[in-house]
């Protein structure tokens, strides 16, 4: 176990600077230095390790609305990817002690090890309310030597940082080469997973449904997908603006043209929307956390779901419409109950559907875990229909 008092309690100063000129002094938490990114808030009461290691948060400075963070420490088993991806971290009261038998290091030590600049001791409620009013905005955390930079210069640095709109971050988080995880139940076949920022829990859930999971680099082509002879294709979650990922949209259209069953989550939902011919847009402050209510229009059930997205699909939430790109009938399958945002799409004439949230829920509720079963059933039905067609040919 780490020492009772972490480095974050040394009272070393730090400051959070928002692009509108707001300045909030606090204490250094994690590594010292400068970091820049889009400041967003996550409403999860737990699961901070899963949040930090979720590649969807690349390019973002994450604020935890829960006031007390870090009491269970960090461990290698619960990591959702190979590293911490957030650009920076904002908490109110980091735990002074680690109080879990599974902990391998403190949260502060983990942030330092991965070079993540953070800040504590700030009024996270006030920042959240400010973002909810003004919208997500660029920010910077300055500590150590960078704290001595003139305040006017600090603001200039923040205001010149890239905006999330227009950013393609898939290449930063994707695997460099293919990785295969064998099925852990009766084999259905191979699924080609385009890694746009996938979480380990997604791979585990796909393998549990009988898929040999081939996690492929985001630069994969349709010919490379065909070489593994997949029974389906999956697009993962991930960071960035879907409007800046036209190559992934073109690849997905090739998948749909080949009549391969498709399932996408989060970023994958936005890319399916664009492939079908709908637009996408940036939300004022996005949905992040593990307590977002969503209506499944098929069952009428309200599910509490895990979210992390700043963009959404622009499609009619009622009725059945024709795909502007010529893929037949499409309907919005799920709706966010807080703001009526599109949370799922289902194609009615081709085997494809997607949701805007994280059914693997790491961490979070398991209300939407059935979607992996729905995917498996869609694939097995498609295979059975193809076999019957061949038999009758």
TrEMBL record:
Q: What is the lineage of its organism?
A: Bacteria, Bacillati, Actinomycetota, Actinomycetes, Micrococcales
- What's the protein called, per UniProt? Carbamoyl phosphate synthase small chain
Q: What is this protein for, i.e. what is its function? A: Small subunit of the glutamine-dependent carbamoyl phosphate synthetase (CPSase). CPSase catalyzes the formation of carbamoyl phosphate from the ammonia moiety of glutamine, carbonate, and phosphate donated by ATP, constituting the first step of 2 biosynthetic pathways, one leading to arginine and/or urea and the other to pyrimidine nucleotides. The small subunit (glutamine amidotransferase) binds and cleaves glutamine to supply the large subunit with the substrate ammonia.
| Gene (name only) | carA
Domain (Carbamoyl-phosphate synthase small subunit N-terminal) ranges: 12-142
**Assembly description:** Composed of two chains; the small (or glutamine) chain promotes the hydrolysis of glutamine to ammonia, which is used by the large (or ammonia) chain to synthesize carbamoyl phosphate. Tetramer of heterodimers (alpha,beta)4.
- Which NCBIfam families does the UniProt entry name for this protein? CPSaseIIsmall, PRK12838.1
Q: Which reaction does it catalyse?
A: L-glutamine + H2O = L-glutamate + NH4(+); hydrogencarbonate + L-glutamine + 2 ATP + H2O = carbamoyl phosphate + L-glutamate + 2 ADP + phosphate + 2 H(+)
| Any GO molecular function | carbamoyl-phosphate synthase (glutamine-hydrolyzing) activity
Q: What is its EC number?
A: 6.3.5.5
Cross-referenced PROSITE patterns: GATASE_TYPE_1
């Amino acid at each position: 176990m780490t020492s009772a008092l972490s480095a974050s309690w040394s009272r070393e100063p730090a400051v959070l600077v928002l692009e509108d000129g707001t300045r909030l002094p606090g204490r250094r938490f994690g590594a010292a230095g400068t970091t820049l990114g889009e400041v967003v808030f996550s409403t999860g009461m737990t699961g901070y390790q899963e949040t930090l290691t979720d590649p969807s948060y690349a390019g973002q400075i994450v604020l935890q609305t829960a006031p007390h963070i870090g009491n269970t420490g960090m461990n290698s088993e619960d990591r959702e990817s190979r590293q911490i991806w957030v650009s920076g971290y904002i908490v109110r009261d980091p735990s002074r002690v680690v109080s879990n038998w599974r902990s391998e290091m403190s949260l502060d030590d983990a942030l330092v090890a991965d070079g993540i600049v953070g800040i504590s001791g700030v009024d996270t409620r006030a920042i959240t309310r400010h973002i909810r009013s003004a919208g997500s905005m660029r920010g910077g955390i300055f500590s150590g030597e960078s704290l001595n930079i003139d305040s006017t210069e600090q603001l200039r640095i923040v205001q010149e940082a890239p905006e999330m709109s227009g950013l393609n971050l898939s290449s930063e988080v994707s695997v460099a080469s293919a990785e295969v995880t064998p099925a852990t139940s009766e084999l259905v076949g191979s699924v080609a997973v385009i890694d746009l920022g996938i979480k380990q829990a997604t791979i585990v859930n796909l393998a549990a449904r009988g898929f040999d999971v081939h996690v492929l680099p985001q630069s994969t082509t349709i010919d490379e997908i065909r070489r593994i002879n997949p029974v389906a294709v999956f697009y993962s979650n991930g960071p960035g603006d879907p409007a800046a990922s036209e190559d992934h949209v073109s690849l997905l259209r090739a998948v749909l043209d080949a009549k391969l069953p498709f399932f996408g989550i989060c970023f994958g939902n936005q890319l399916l929307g664009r492939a079908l011919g709908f637009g996408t847009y940036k939300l004022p402050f996005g949905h992040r956390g593990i307590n977002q209510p969503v209506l499944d229009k098929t069952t009428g059930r309200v599910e509490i779901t895990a979210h992390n997205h700043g963009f959404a699909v622009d499609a009619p939430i009622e009725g059945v419409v024709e795909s502007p790109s010529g893929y037949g009938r499409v309907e919005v399958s799920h709706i966010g109950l807080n703001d009526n945002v599109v949370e799922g799409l289902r194609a009615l004439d081709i085997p494809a559907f997607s949701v805007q949230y994280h059914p693997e829920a790491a961490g979070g509720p398991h209300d939407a875990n059935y979607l992996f079963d729905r995917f498996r059933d869609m694939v097995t039905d498609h295979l059975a229909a193809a076999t019957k067609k061949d038999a009758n040919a």
